[in-house]
Structures are given as C-alpha cells and as structure tokens.
Amino acid sequence: MALGLTDEGFVVEHAATGTQANELVLTGSYDLIVLDVMLPGKDGFSLCEQWRGRGIATPILFVTARDAVAQRVRGLQLGGDDYLIKPFAFEELVMRIRTLLRRSSGARPVMRLEGGALLNLGTQQVQLDATEVTLTMREWQILECLALAAGRIVSRNVLWESVWESGAAPDSNLIDVYIRRLREKLGMESIETVRGTGYRLRTANL
User: What is the C-alpha to C-alpha distance for residues 97 and 27, in angstroms, rounded to an integer?
Assistant: First the structure.
C-alpha cells in the first residue's frame, strides 16, 4: 500500500507496529491515517481511542479483515472516519483516501463534464444549461465515485463495492441501467465506457 500510494503522488510514512504508529502520530503532522486494526504491539482500535482522547482529529481510515458489523460500528464509534474491509481493490483505497481528504480540507471542487454539465462535489449539485439536474441518491453516489477518480478508469467491481457495498458479485445489468440514466441526464459524452475494464468520467476545462 505504501508503494502504491507513493506512486499516486502521496507522501507516505509507514509503521509496521502499533508502537511505531503511535510514535509517528504523536510527534508528526499528517493529513490522514490509514490504520490496520490488527497491528502487533497495540491494535488499531486502541490507538484510535488514544489519539482521539488526546484531541488528535486527523481523519482515520481503518483497514481490516474483520468484516462483522459490530467491529465496523466499534471502529466508527471510537472515532474512525471510514472502514475498508480486506481484501479490497487498491483503486478503492485511493478513492476513499481522496474522499476523506476532500472532506477534511473543506475543499469544494467543481468540474465541467463533456457535454456541458457542471458538477459541484461540495454542494452535491449538478447543472446543465443553467438548469439544476435532479439525481437520485444512487445516481449521485455513482457520479461522485467516478468524479473522485479524477478521470481515471473505475472498474465495475470498485463501482459496485463503493456504491452498493453488498459483498455480492457485481450486477452488470444494474450498473448499466444507472450509467445509462446518468448519460441521459448529463449528456452521452459525460461517461466513457472502457470495454472490459469499467467507466471513466470525461471532463472539460472550466
């Protein structure tokens, strides 16, 4: 993960144990913490609780093989901001990191799509020809997922797991239905199908 995130342009410091992680967080300054629950020495839940008790508000993304609902709830109750279950696609990790960073920074990115639609991720509004476009919750989640990939390809698996989170095999027909609806509302040029791979949001310069 450290090597992959470095390749994505992030500055990464890696800790192999809970003790090392604690030393880094208490002495350094970070924009986000990717925290494994099953760390040797001191587990991720204990670290999160300790840091929040000290007033450290850095966003925390838990990664763990523990998929029980009770475990996820506990992590969020202790102050975690998101929870990613192993195994996961690396591109999903990157998207979740970018989402947390955007939320914590208060950024309000605006982008124009091919076809003319204007997308505001901060206000969750979409306009086309100066008219607001009404999207369902699921349509918005798919559009946001594609937008956070910043023009990169989003696979069907990642799209399914990010939006539906069912753990079941992706339903290609259902995904196709929602992509078609978005194209009808935003313009056929807005979303590109990359055959055999997934989808990519097509953006234009503002």
Answer: 22
Q: DSSP secondary-structure letter at 191?
A: E
* Cβ neighbour number for residue 36 with a 10 Å cutoff: 19
The pLDDT of residue 58 is above 50: yes
Using the structure block, give the residue that is written with the tokens 């202790």: 78
Q: Contacts from 43-49 at CB under 8 Å and sequence distance 24+?
A: 43/18, 44/18, 44/75, 45/74, 45/75, 45/78, 46/18, 47/18, 47/21, 47/22, 48/75, 48/78, 48/79, 48/80, 49/78, 49/79
Indicate the pTM of the whole model: 0.59
Across the range 101-106, mean pLDDT stands at 72
Longest dimension (CA), the chain: 57
Percent share of the chain, pLDDT over 90 = 36
Tokens representing 122 are 């901060």
pLDDT higher than 90, residue 120: no
